């Protein structure tokens, strides 16, 4: 997906969020402000994507030899915490309104603002749908499901596949936003013509707060795995070990570490023991292992250490000794 697409989406989300939140504040409607809060989570996602694109162009430094990819993870946690703080405030207000019922809502402004939210989501869904169709028509060649090679054609095919999936995922997400906006519009219609049913406003706040949690808990889980240097959910360490063991002259895998620098950038360090008498094939084995990790499993970086098999592990590799103990 081109950078221009994210910039255009960013501008539209900023404008829509500002309109909804200010309209909800003027109308004294928590439901609209919670709808705007849900849109803030989408806005945070786009900002993080742009941040990742910017960081990918920055070179590592002497102090930060891996680069600045973890800034994306840190930004994700901060943005989610900000959303939770705002959501807690809105929930507190919703509880107070439910208990005391001493509030007034401007039904006209609420109805107009909710209608604007529905219209914007309809337009964005239409544009995303058109973008997906245009992309599929212009790149309709078949995509292979076999492990990708290092050829330019394979990389070209992969990039188009991921772009198409990204647009479709954004369309589905926009559809969910549209359903939520329609719910706010229905509540606004009820409150405008039946003010005695103003309890619909805090009820919408409760429902939409649950949706906000459901859309952000995955972000927290993924960032937690990255910070704890866990294996990404799309990789299977046992499968990696099996494929490494299939390489000729590999006797055993002494150590294997797989973790993520950030989302989509996985790193691996592997220590292989080779069969005795295979020292002349070390370069070939290392090349095959690197090709397997980088191309088949899509690693961002990898390091392959080789050693001839011995009955006792060499005292020079303390990390392997501790992992095998």
Automatic annotation (TrEMBL):
<dbReference type="GO" id="GO:0010043">
    <property type="term" value="P:response to zinc ion"/>
</dbReference>
<feature type="transmembrane region" description="Helical">
    <location>
        <begin position="107"/>
        <end position="128"/>
    </location>
</feature>
<keyword id="KW-0812">Transmembrane</keyword>
<dbReference type="Pfam" id="PF16916">
    <property type="entry name" value="ZT_dimer"/>
</dbReference>
<feature type="transmembrane region" description="Helical">
    <location>
        <begin position="6"/>
        <end position="27"/>
    </location>
</feature>
<comment type="function">
    <text>Probable proton-coupled zinc ion antiporter mediating zinc import from cytoplasm potentially into the endocytic compartment. Controls zinc deposition in milk.</text>
</comment>
<feature type="transmembrane region" description="Helical">
    <location>
        <begin position="203"/>
        <end position="220"/>
    </location>
</feature>
<feature type="compositionally biased region" description="Low complexity">
    <location>
        <begin position="145"/>
        <end position="160"/>
    </location>
</feature>
<dbReference type="GO" id="GO:0005765">
    <property type="term" value="C:lysosomal membrane"/>
</dbReference>
<keyword id="KW-0458">Lysosome</keyword>
<dbReference type="InterPro" id="IPR002524">
    <property type="entry name" value="Cation_efflux"/>
</dbReference>
<feature type="domain" description="Cation efflux protein transmembrane">
    <location>
        <begin position="10"/>
        <end position="228"/>
    </location>
</feature>
<dbReference type="InterPro" id="IPR027470">
    <property type="entry name" value="Cation_efflux_CTD"/>
</dbReference>
<keyword id="KW-0050">Antiport</keyword>
<dbReference type="InterPro" id="IPR058533">
    <property type="entry name" value="Cation_efflux_TM"/>
</dbReference>
<feature type="transmembrane region" description="Helical">
    <location>
        <begin position="170"/>
        <end position="191"/>
    </location>
</feature>
<comment type="similarity">
    <text>Belongs to the cation diffusion facilitator (CDF) transporter (TC 2.A.4) family. SLC30A subfamily.</text>
</comment>
<dbReference type="GO" id="GO:0046872">
    <property type="term" value="F:metal ion binding"/>
</dbReference>
<feature type="domain" description="Cation efflux protein cytoplasmic">
    <location>
        <begin position="232"/>
        <end position="307"/>
    </location>
</feature>
<keyword id="KW-0862">Zinc</keyword>
<dbReference type="GO" id="GO:0005385">
    <property type="term" value="F:zinc ion transmembrane transporter activity"/>
</dbReference>
<keyword id="KW-0479">Metal-binding</keyword>
<feature type="transmembrane region" description="Helical">
    <location>
        <begin position="39"/>
        <end position="57"/>
    </location>
</feature>
<dbReference type="Pfam" id="PF01545">
    <property type="entry name" value="Cation_efflux"/>
</dbReference>
<keyword id="KW-0864">Zinc transport</keyword>
<keyword id="KW-0472">Membrane</keyword>
<dbReference type="InterPro" id="IPR050681">
    <property type="entry name" value="CDF/SLC30A"/>
</dbReference>
<dbReference type="GO" id="GO:0005886">
    <property type="term" value="C:plasma membrane"/>
</dbReference>
<keyword id="KW-0967">Endosome</keyword>
<dbReference type="GO" id="GO:0031902">
    <property type="term" value="C:late endosome membrane"/>
</dbReference>
<keyword id="KW-1133">Transmembrane helix</keyword>
<protein>
    <recommendedName>
        <fullName>Probable proton-coupled zinc antiporter SLC30A4</fullName>
    </recommendedName>
</protein>
<keyword id="KW-0813">Transport</keyword>
<feature type="compositionally biased region" description="Basic residues">
    <location>
        <begin position="135"/>
        <end position="144"/>
    </location>
</feature>
<dbReference type="InterPro" id="IPR027469">
    <property type="entry name" value="Cation_efflux_TMD_sf"/>
</dbReference>
<feature type="transmembrane region" description="Helical">
    <location>
        <begin position="73"/>
        <end position="95"/>
    </location>
</feature>
<dbReference type="GO" id="GO:0015297">
    <property type="term" value="F:antiporter activity"/>
</dbReference>
<keyword id="KW-0406">Ion transport</keyword>
<feature type="region of interest" description="Disordered">
    <location>
        <begin position="135"/>
        <end position="160"/>
    </location>
</feature>
